[in-house]
Structure formats: structure tokens, C-alpha cells
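User: ok so my PI wants both of these folded by tonight, can you help

Assistant: No problem, let's get them done. Here's the first:
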Amino acid sequence: MTMTSPSEGNDVQSRQGPNQENSSSVASEPLRGWRLVVILCSFAFGLLLAVIETSITATALVSIGNYFGDPIKVTWVVLAYLLSYMGFAMIFTRMSDGIGRLEATIIAWIFFGAFSLGSGLAKTLNQLIGFRLLQGIGGSGLYSMVMVVGTEITPIKHYGSFSAMIGMTVAVGSILGPILGGVITTESTWRWIYLFNAPCTAFGIFSLLVCWPRPKSNSEIAKNPLRSFHKVDYLGAILLLAASTLLVFALQEAGAAAYAWNSAAIISALAISAVCWCAFFGWISWLSFGEGPRGMRAIFPLTIALTRPTGPAIVAIFLTGFPYLISIINLPQRFQIVNGATPLMAGVHLLPLLCSMALGGGVGGAVSTRKNLTSHTLIFATCLILLGCGLMSTVSDTLTLNKAIYGYQFILGLGTGLTFSSVTMMANLANKPENIAAAQGAISQARIFGGSIGLSIATIVLNHKINTELAGILTPFQLHNLEQSLTTIAELSPSDRAAVTRVYAASFGTQMRICTYLSAAGVIAATGTYLSEPPKISAPMEPVHVDTEMVRY
């Protein structure tokens, strides 16, 4: 990222809604030069670690399951992180409006680092799952806060570079996750896939504390740091968290045959989730358009969802989240189960997808460096995702690795990277400063929410094929274990294993066909972001009066 000049610092201040009119009472000076670079790098580093943790466990699941002697329950090591990672993105961005950007980010770092350490030192599988759940809270904060703070300290004319940095960081994190998981598990112990985050956390916190601008001691904010904490929408946060996590939990557990679809646990989870969704939208509607509690801002203002291009962009990113996580998590498993690859080679086979994601992330931001072409980029990106998913669904179910899958991965990854960077930049340019935090939080959460539902649907598809095509081959006990975890395939005879392999390959094709249909809907949503006169890159947004107590620096 290019350093800012004093004039660029003014550009930053001119559209930093929370700091516009009273920035002098909040921070002693605008960020520029080496401090800006260090802070951006620190946030990008946190984003990198958070993304790595979404997939690093995928290639270590077999080792972890064998270590604890429970290959079935071990899948919760991945799911626990994804649930909290998905559920807290919007909560962190809105919480930072109440307690401050720095404070919210440090809380995220502490959660991430402390419970990474706990995960690495876990003595039981239940402890590991619990620590991963709490680690995901920190990862969610690191993921979402970079979208908020980065846009507030980056000059508008460098939005393209910032969006490119974000897209490439997400892609590189996705690249490193499976590879690091495979290398560490092969060369050492699985515990180090979590332990290495502890020293990284110390570096992240230290760099922020050293470089973050200090508030003036005579400001009301400095004297009373929790003064505006009561304005945080706690009820909305709780309702959103319960609605999203219970839905994913029910789909995943029923799909994995841990509970029957008509069991009390699944019916209760789905019913409570539905009630929470209704209550959530009713509550935020009241806060957005009615006479809510004085000073309280909805965790997600409906005005964002009801305006273009942000509303359609959130829908598009939600739909493209399905193939994103299915590819990142399930494709390495396909390489291992169908093609007999080691965890390390499974990560290597995934490189075309991940490298093209990095390329797309960089190109997506660079395209709109001078002119706002984010909508055009997003429409093109969703078309690439549609094409990539369609091609991936045609991969044969033979045990021999079809080299064409590398080209299909490249197309899918390029579209995914372009989508990430273009939507991030679009939200920055299209929203008023006081709404950017909520918009970026919604985008972050929608992406992971869509991906989590996608993984649950993939599990449902796989287990349906297992039940229908292997019922006459495997015993009921073997079928039940296989439905809950594919790691139990190692316990089968060679002939039974070959049958399961064919079913898994066919199941992956079905999963990608479903992603193709959803990606087509994503293209339609992306076209809704088109504006004949989109916000300009060069011109700062018009000043907006914002209560400076809500955002502290």
C-alpha cells in the first residue's frame, strides 16, 4: 500500500464519517506514512491467520480423529470454528462502533490467540472443540475488522489497492491453510497447526499498540471509554447469532445423521432459528424505521439491504459463498479419498484454485483504481463462478486424477477472487461512512453463512447417496459411522472402500451441480448492483454528521 501524503491524509478524514467533524478530539493526527503501512499490514496479518484457520484443520482431521480415537465426532473441530466465525462478523463491526475500533480488534486478537493456544494444548476432543468455538470468535473479529478499519484509514483513490490487498490476503490464506495443515501434520504433530498462532497474536497486538494514534486526554471519549457502550444493539446481535448458528447446526447434524430429521433436537433448533430470524428482522426494522431506544443503532440497518448496489451485492456474496467453502473444504477431501493423495499433495492439487483466487483478488481491486467498475467486475466474476461450477460438476468419478480439474479450478478461483475484492470495494464506495462498518460486517457474515450452509447441503447430498447406493454393500453400523465422518473409510475392506470412493466422487459432482444453480442466481443478483452512475473513485463522499461517541480512535 502506498504511503499517504498530508493531502491524502485529509482525503481520509474527509470521508471518515465517525471522525469527520471532531477528528481532532479523537486522534492527535491522521494516519500516514509508516504508521499507516504497519497498521494495514497488522490487520492484513490478522485476516491471513483467520482465513488459514478455516481450512488448516481439513487436512489434519484424520490425524486428530486417530489421536483422540473418535473419527466421527472430530468433524466438529472444523464446524465449531466455522459456526462462531460465521456468527460474530457483524457483531464485531457493530460492537466496535460502541467500544472503539482498537479495543474491538484487540479483543478479537486475544480470543484468537488465547484459544488457539488452548486448542493446541487440549487434552480431550471436547476441549479441542470448545476451544475452537471460542477461537472462531476471535477469527471472526480479525476477519471483519480489517474491512472496517482499512476503509476508514485508506484514501479513496487507493481503494482499489486496498481491495486488491484484501482479496489477495484471503486467497493466500486459503492457499496456506490446506498446505500448512498437511506439512505440519506430516512432519510434526497436529497441535502445531494451532500453537503457532500464539506468538503471531503477540506480534499483532504489539504492532497496533505501538502505531495506533492516541486519543487526546481532554476528550470526553478518553475520559469515559465505555460511555457509548449502551448504544450497541445487543438484542439484535443475540438474535442474529442464534438464528444463523442454530440453522447451520440443524442442517449439519441432521445431514450427518447425528440426529434424525424428525428428532426433537433438530425440530427445536429449526423452530427456534425461524423465530429468531423473524424477531431479528422485526427488531432491526423497528430500529431502522421506527422509534427505537435513543441512540441505539441496529446491528444491521435495513436501509443498507434495501438500497443498490449493497443489497444485491450481499445476496450475490451469500450465493457465491456456497461454492467457495465447498471447494476449499471438500475438494481436498476428494483428492484424498478418490485419488489417494496425501494431505500435503491434496493441498498442492488445490493450488490452481487458490492461486487464481489471489490473482482475482488483485485484479478485482486494480480494475477500479481510476474508475468505479466494481459492478462490471462482479457481474463478470459471478459468470466465471457459474462456468467454473458447471465444469467442476462434469469431472469424472474415476480414480485417476483428471488433469482438466486444474483448469476448472482456475476459472472458479478467478471468479471467487474477483467477487471478494469487487464487493469489498463496492460497499466502501456506495455507503455513507456511518454505515460502512455494518455493510462490511454483513458482507463478511453473508459469505461465511452461505459457505456454511453449502457445507451442510454437501453433507446431506453425500449421505443421501451413501444410504441409497451403499445400503446393500455396507452394514447398518458401517453406514451410520460413514454418514457421520468419512475418516471411518480407513476401517473398511479394499472392495468396500472402492465402492465408497465411487459414491463420494459422484456426490461431489452433484454438489457442484447444486452450486451451479445457485451461481446462476448469483449472476442475477450481481446484475442488480449495476448503476448507470456509480459513486466515483476520485470524489470523497459528502460530509455526514455522526455522533463521535460511537466510534473511538
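One down. Here's the second:
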Amino acid sequence: MSVNLLIVSKGHAFSHDSFLTMFAEMSDVVTTLVEQPAAQVILQPENVAPYDAVLFYDMSGIPDAGLVHDGANNTGQPPSVYVDAIEKLLDAGKGLVLLNHATFSWPLWPLWREITQSSAMLRAGELDGKQVPGSGYRGGHGPLPNASVKLISQGDHPVLAGLETGFEIADELYLKTPHFESAVTPLLRADYDFSTANFTPPPLAPEEEQQNWQHPQGSDLIAWAHSCRRSPVVVTDLGDGPSAFENPDFSRFIENAVTWVSSEHAQRWVESKAG
């Protein structure tokens, strides 16, 4: 049976053709792409019900970044109707997948951090009661090239089916603190040196922070699963551009993730964690 997938985008440039081609080649996934702010209507309970899962690929809710698509009016706070929609999405147990820049969305909205469980930071600040630096990045739209890395599969998980030996990819990477790892189920680690010298400072941080930026040794975990309320969630830092979208192993990973979060197995997994 096909998975009916809703994809939410806007706020960050990407190669539409290669991105959508990746999904078009998934024989058991049927996709609908909606951009913000229309997504805030489609995600209302009565409209999102036909979809088995939602994949977030938007970059929203970031103050002073010139974003005008998210309904936040440069405050970083989501409209109340969007808050209500996301709350009900989680209460209904809808499967969620988040890629790449979506992990940086809504930095001032605590619920979005609960959904991503990522430690990615646009600038230095407090995270879980600790002061942490802004996150670096390598590749993507920055001055450094994409990193070519070997990804190492972690354990036995349905999202890793057919990828048990890992795979290689050239894609954007983020330098983020590792403390989030204790709250998630690891899926993929990258064989790479996650140190300051290999990354560009956070581009939206104040100029002084960028000039003096230093980051402790970062996490090599670039894909993970967890539960948020009743929803199974898969998150990955990967997925910036064509080098990822045209990689058959990455495509398999995304198809596996979308299929799993839509499954009864994932729902039982969430229930077992809650119990």
C-alpha cells in the first residue's frame, strides 16, 4: 500500500527538480508538496487527515532573516492556528520526517525543538539549561565544499533496511553539540572530524560571534529517530541538494523513514516508549 506523504517547504533555496524526482521514483510513496504559509492551512486536522505522514523541508520562524512566508511577522513566534495544528498533529500520532534546514526552524518555539530533538543552533545561546555556541556548517550554500563521508548504520532498525553496511554521500553537514544523543535512537553516524576547523561559522550569528567562533568537538550523529507525544519522528541533517537527492542510498533511507513513521510498527514503538 502506498504512503500518502505531505511535504512542507519554503524559506530556503533547493533544487526542486532533483528533490521531487527523488520522491517520484519511490514506487510506494505518493507526494503532495505545499509551501508555507499555505501549509498552515493544509496541516489543520480536517485537511491533513488523508496524509499518512508529513515531511518538513521548510526553514521558518527565524527573526531578522528576511523571512516573510511563515506568518510570524519577524517575531519568531508561530501563529496560534499553526501552533494548534502542530499540537493536534502530534496528539493524533501523525508520522513526521524532518530534513536538513528544517531542524533550524522556529528556534524560539520550544515545541519545535521537542519535535527535532536537534542541538542545532543559529547562534550562541542557552539549550537545555546550558550555554552552547552556534552551530557550524560545511557545504550547502557556504564557502566550503560538501563533505564526502562514509555513513555508518547504527543497529537494526526498519529505517536502515538495505543500508546495514552504511553508505557514502557528499552533502552538507552541521557541527552541533552531542548532548541531544541521549534522548534519541541513533540511525546514522558520519565518519568525519566534527571540529571547528572543518566548518564555517553560523551565518546568522552576530559578526563578532562569527569572527571569534569556536565549537567543541561535535556530534557525528546525523540521523536519528524518537517519539514526540504520540508521533514517531525521523530527523536527519542530510538533504541539502542534488548530490544527496540523486544518491540511491539516501533515497532509500528517506523512503524507509517515510514508510516507517507511517506504520503500525512505529506506532507500537511510540507506545512502548510511553509505557
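The chain has a mean pLDDT of 97. The CA atoms of residues 229 and 274 lie 8 Å apart. Good luck tonight!
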